[in-house]
Design goal:
Blueprint (H helix, E strand, L loop, with lengths): L9 E4 L3 H16 L5 E6 L4 H17 L4 E6 H5 L1 H5 L6 E2 L8 H5 L37 E5 L1 E2 L10 H5 L3 E2 L2 H13 L4 E5 L16 H11 L5 E4 L9 H9 L6 E7 L3 H6 L6 H14 L4 E8 L6 H13 L2 E8 L16 H25 L4 E10 L4 E6 L4 E5 L12 E10 L2 E6 L2
Parallel strand pairs: 1-2, 2-3, 3-4, 5-8, 8-9, 10-11, 11-12, 15-17
Antiparallel strand pairs: 6-7, 13-14, 13-16, 14-15, 16-17
Bound molecules: iron/sulfur cluster.
The site of iron/sulfur cluster has 9 residues, from helix 6.
């Protein structure tokens, strides 16, 4: 691992879209501070495995580059700083709030480091009340741009460590969000993805108490050149009426919703401290589908949550088809020390894995069925990457299906970020095969 090609700082990102957005902010601060020969790890704590991978990457970086400076930040560092402070490979540890402040990078002189008895830059994330806006120009490697609208979470789902890494919910003022989206559109982005930790809790901390729905309405109104607005994961029970209107009435709002369902069993949802019942999920699905029949759904579901019986698990399996889920993200339950669920009677690890495999298998069937149903349709594909080897490009449809445009004479007209109309001619290896509409 070498620090940035021109010896500037390199940022290694783990985890969610919010971390990806924040890594762009950190790259900007590090460059402006002239930070050199440094690698910054922006970690994730959502599962024990995510934290383990970060530690492994840090050790590898030190082995490959003995003299590089290593800074660790992100949720794993915020939740358990001592774990990283104790690593000989690590020069500094920064909290999730501190990583977003430019002045902290200016303090990293050529010879900084914990062994120099420098204090780790970590404060009480629960004390953070505001989320400052950081205007970014774009993403080095992305044609679809993430925009942070919210951070933190006021809920305390019994399995989740995120609030301890991100603090309580706080919203970015709507004007700043619109300015960020405008900047990205001016820089050529045709798709913006609204991201945060719990985006449906957007707004109550702001004057006038806007909602996620009114924010989306504002973005679409004030940035008429934005072609595609997409939502990241939402908590359907918190979806406000304005959001429902935007999702079902606005063509520029992408017809693809990812729901944070977590389980299909009411007793497990109760023990997870979730705010919805299985019937609430089904009602939301039916209401959206009734108003906009082509909306495609994805969802997060946990397999093997403590006390989950086979019968309860069956309710999760049934929910997949009852909500016609196409994109299923399955997580075998992962113990997070410090969470209430960690103190509950655990389901055997092997059973968790086996249930996750059954859920994924059902998810694959749902995905295959949906993808096959697209053959013959004409769809809009946002080009993300060129594949010169077979003169094709790949990207995603408005329904977030991966797609490949084949049989191109030249790739020149299909620059990354461009939205092309193409007809689906087939489905292979998890991707739609298409040809440009004449
Ligand atoms: S809503 Fe629940 S699962 Fe989501 S971040 Fe908050 S506590 Fe975690």
């Amino acid at each position: 691992m070498k620090s940035g090609s021109d010896n500037t700082a390199e940022v290694v990102t783990f985890g969610c879209r919010l971390n990806t957005y924040e890594s762009e902010v950190m790259k900007k601060h590090a460059a402006e501070a002239g930070l050199e020969n440094t690698v910054i790890f922006n970690t994730c704590a959502v599962t024990a495995e995510a934290t383990r991978q970060a530690r492994q990457a840090i050790r590898r970086a030190r082995k490959e580059s003995p003299d590089v400076k290593i800074i660790v930040t992100g949720c794993a560092a915020q939740v358990n700083p001592d774990e990283f402070i104790a690593m000989a490979e690590v020069d500094q540890v920064m909290g999730n709030e501190e990583k977003l402040h430019a002045e902290n990078y200016k303090n990293f002189g050529p010879d900084f480091g914990l062994e120099k008895s420098e204090k780790p830059l970590i404060n009480d994330i629960m004390a953070v009340r505001e989320t400052a806006n950081h205007l970014i120009e774009g993403y080095a490697e992305r044609t679809r741009a993430f925009v942070q609208v919210q951070n933190g979470c006021d809920h305390r789902c019994s399995f989740c460590i995120i609030p301890y890494g991100r603090g309580n919910s706080r919203s970015v003022p709507a004007g700043d969000v619109v300015a960020q989206v405008k900047r990205l559109v001016d820089n050529g982005y045709n798709e913006v993805i609204i991201t945060g930790v719990d985006i449906t809790s957007y707004g109550p901390d702001l004057p006038g108490k806007p909602s996620l729905g009114t924010l989306c309405q504002k973005i679409l109104k004030l940035v008429p050149d934005l072609k595609r607005l997409r939502l990241s994961s939402i908590d359907s029970i918190e979806a406000d009426e304005a959001l429902f209107q935007v999702i079902t009435q606005e063509e520029r709002m992408m017809p693809h919703l990812h729901l944070s369902l977590q389980s299909g069993d009411d007793m497990i949802l109760k023990r997870m401290k979730r705010r919805h019942s299985r019937q609430d999920s089904i009602d939301f699905f039916n209401r959206v589908r009734a108003a906009r029949p082509d909306v495609v759904f994805g969802a997060d579901i946990i397999a093997g949550f403590p006390t989950e019986t086979e019968e309860m698990f069956q309710n999760s399996l049934k929910l997949v088809t009852e909500c016609d889920l196409t994109y299923l993200h399955v997580f075998p339950y992962s113990i997070r020390e410090g969470t209430p669920a960690a103190r509950m009677p655990q389901v055997d690890k092997q059973i968790r894995k086996e249930r996750a495999a059954r859920l994924r298998a059902l998810g694959d069937q749902q995905f295959d069925r949906y993808m096959t149903s697209q053959i013959g349709k004409s769809l809009s594909i946002l080009v993300e990457k060129h594949l010169p080897e077979d003169k094709s490009v790949i990207g995603h449809t408005e329904y977030f299906a991966p797609a490949k445009i084949m049989a191109l004479y030249s790739l020149d007209n299909l620059k990354p970020g461009y939205i092309a109309k193409a007809r689906v001619t087939g489905y292979e290896n998890g991707i739609l095969i298409t040809e440009l509409d004449p």
